[in-house]
Design a protein that fits this description.
By secondary structure, the protein is of the alpha/beta class. The protein has a single domain, classed as Uracil-DNA Glycosylase, subunit E (3-Layer(aba) Sandwich), CATH 3.40.470. It contains eight helices and six strands. The protein has a six-stranded mixed beta sheet. About 45% of the residues are buried.
């Protein structure tokens, strides 16, 4: 019988995409000067959070010196430094910091995953790599039966999540992606709540502000 621990082990052991395996291991061996003392994770990164979560966040892919270093989604880089304080303010995390896998962080009624599980070169997974990871996401959806709201972080994550639903046989029309957009999906599926990705490209330019992130997480709580 499938369970999250088995899924995590399968994700961690995956070597399906040669380009991504080579890149994640090269990054882990080369390291960034600030993290020379770190033993990089350098593998595919599993999801993280509460098994009984009603809110599911879906990201794009691990960061080179974030999750590819720490082994936990959105941990150890600027995206996580923006996201986890917002989750803490909203009551979905027990602390605002996410530094490493053993830092005591726990998610409350929330689970975080991604459509691609390995760090991609130039931070751009290709369609075939996202498709190769899709069965992991589909298994995750089946193993998180209480999810009521899915919040994809960015258009790529949104498209990847909807593609997973379509492959499972659900008829999903083309949907507008916009920060804060809410879409009711076919009966039996969670509500879709879109958000911009908390990347530095968005947060440093003001495209995504703390207030905007707090607002969309407040929307999630209302939908729950």
């Amino acid at each position: 019988m499938d369970n999250l621990a088995l899924l995590d082990a399968d994700v961690t052991g995956c070597r399906a995409c040669p380009r991504l395996v080579a890149w994640r291991e090269e990054v882990a061996a080369t390291k960034r000067r600030a993290y020379l003392e770190w033993d990089y994770w350098g593998k595919a990164v599993p999801g993280f959070g509460a098994p009984n979560a009603r809110l599911l966040l879906v990201g794009m892919a691990p960061g080179a010196h974030g999750a590819n270093r720490t082994g936990r989604v959105f941990s150890g880089d600027a995206s996580g430094d923006f996201l986890y304080p917002a989750l803490h303010r909203a009551g979905f995390a027990n602390q605002p910091t996410s530094i490493h896998r053993d830092d005591g962080l726990q998610l409350i009624d929330c689970y975080i995953t991604s459509v691609a599980r390995c760090v991609p070169p130039q931070n751009k997974p290709v369609a075939g790599e996202i498709a190769a990871c899709r069965p992991f996401l589909q298994r995750e959806l089946a193993l998180l039966p209480r999810v009521q709201v899915v919040m994809p972080l960015g258009r790529i994550a949104c498209d990847g999540y909807l593609a997973a639903l379509r492959v499972l046989g659900h008829v999903i029309p083309r949907l507008e992606f916009a920060h804060g957009a809410v879409h009711k999906l076919p009966v039996g599926l969670p509500t879709l709540l879109c958000s911009y990705h908390p990347s530095q490209q968005n947060t440093r330019t003001g495209r995504l502000t703390e207030e905007m992130m707090d607002t969309v997480l407040a929307q999630a709580k209302l939908l729950l």
